[in-house]
Design goal:
Helix content: 25-40%
Radius of gyration: 27 Å
Number of strands: 18
Number of helices: 12
CATH superfamily of the largest domain: eRF1 domain 2
CATH architecture of the largest domain: 2-Layer Sandwich
Strand order of the largest sheet: 1-4-3-2-5
Largest sheet: 5 strands, mixed
CATH class of the largest domain: Alpha Beta
Length: 383
């Protein structure tokens, strides 16, 4: 196989490969019969790439670049396992394919740099998360994205229930509570007035165990947002004792057992969307503050110069704005040009690559979310 499937962005090849470079984006489909048209669309995009490569001098290695693309075109197994979109980056040395869980617009270009804005957009926000389904005496952990989730299997022998965790440390008070309304009725505590206090102590001990176990075995490794799913009273008790920095301030206030997978996913998506919206809002506020203090700008010329000098901390780019041309990464000079010519791509895309290569942050936003109308907005680094 001459192409490889990538799962993380950005790949080193984005900054290392030499022209000519191919960038191809295409919406795809998960199931039949819709996915029957996907290979045909891909073939049409390849024709556009072939036309661009034909403008280059002979001996440029374009035949070598196209080989893995033809392999993708002719691989029925590949087209049976696509998701909602693909992104393909190809050079003379490598061909990398991203299977995307968000749709993308058709786009195919040959240029001196890879076209990365759609990929930034696909990977920039919270897509993956972990869920903690919490009861007073049991817990469960899921991991997923906005399209689904699965249970993370806790190894056999690991204490999981309150009884397993506390064992003989459980208070006598907890062991003597009962239900006055029958087996399905609410739990009523009988005995002295301090019975509930003793039970709360057991709950606190157990929640501390859950918090420590989830952090050490899942959160610290994945670094993903942890969304609690529990009855309202358990949220409050758990947050009081939690030391997990990945525990999200938002949660789902319903027992995980009282929801089917579709409802749980829908509620989780709503939280993920809130997290992303809040991130954009705070970034826009940071830009406004930076601009007022001469530490931010939406002037393209000034932004390009700052990027060339490595002075951009955060760059915002308008998603559907293209400025044909290129940036000379050696001099910082901006050159306008025809986007259909293989020497050119999108100046804003080059700008994004320059900032990413310097460990800056890049967000690609809809026009309505941009804090400026020039297509760019930058927050500068403090020197």
């Amino acid at each position: 196989m001459r192409y490889e499937i990538a799962r993380h962005f950005p790949q080193d090849m984005i900054f290392r490969e030499s022209a000519p470079l191919i960038s191809l984006y295409q919406p795809t489909h998960r199931s039949s019969p819709e996915n029957k048209q996907d290979p045909i669309v891909f073939k049409n995009l390849l024709r556009k790439i072939e036309g661009s490569l034909a403008q280059l001098p002979a001996g440029d290695g374009s035949g070598l670049i196209m080989k893995p693309l033809y392999e993708i075109r002719d691989d029925p197994d590949f087209w049976m396992h696509t998701l909602d979109g693909i992104a393909v980056f190809a050079s003379q040395n490598r061909c990398v394919v991203y299977l995307l869980q968000t749709p993308v617009k058709e786009y195919a270009v040959v240029a001196g740099r890879f076209h990365i804005k759609p990929l930034i957009r696909a990977f920039q926000f919270t897509e993956n998360y972990q869920l903690l389904g919490l009861h007073r005496d049991n817990f469960i952990v899921y991991q997923g994205n906005r399209y689904g989730f699965k249970e993370l299997v806790i190894p056999p022998g690991v204490p999981r229930t309150m009884k397993e965790v506390l064992g003989s440390e459980r208070t006598e008070a907890y062991l003597t509570h009962g239900s006055y309304a029958g087996s399905g009725g609410p739990t009523m505590y009988h005995g002295h007035g301090d019975v509930k206090q003793e039970i709360d102590k057991d709950t606190e001990k157990y929640f501390r165990y859950v918090d420590s176990f989830v952090f050490e075995n899942y959160s610290i490794k994945s670094k993903l947002p942890l969304i609690p799913v529990a009855l309202k009273e358990y949220h409050s008790d758990f947050r009081k004792i939690s030391n997990n920095p990945y525990l999200n301030e938002k949660g789902i206030y319903k027992s995980v057992d009282a929801m089917d997978p579709d409802e749980l996913l829908e509620r989780t998506r709503a939280i993920i969307d809130e997290i992303d919206s809040e991130h954009v809002r705070k970034t826009a506020e940071s830009y406004a503050k930076a601009e007022s203090g001469s530490m931010g700008s939406s002037d393209r010329t000034r932004v390009v110069r700052a990027a060339f000098e490595g002075r951009i901390e955060t760059l915002l780019i308008e998603a559907d704005r293209n400025v044909p041309g290129k940036i000379d990464f050696e001099t910082g000079k901006v050159e306008s040009g025809d986007i259909d010519h293989p020497d050119n791509d999108d100046i804003l895309d080059d700008l994004a690559e320059m900032v990413l290569s310097q460990k800056g942050t890049v967000l690609v936003l809809e026009k309505e979310a941009m804090p400026a109308d020039t297509g760019v907005a930058a927050i500068f680094r403090y020197k």
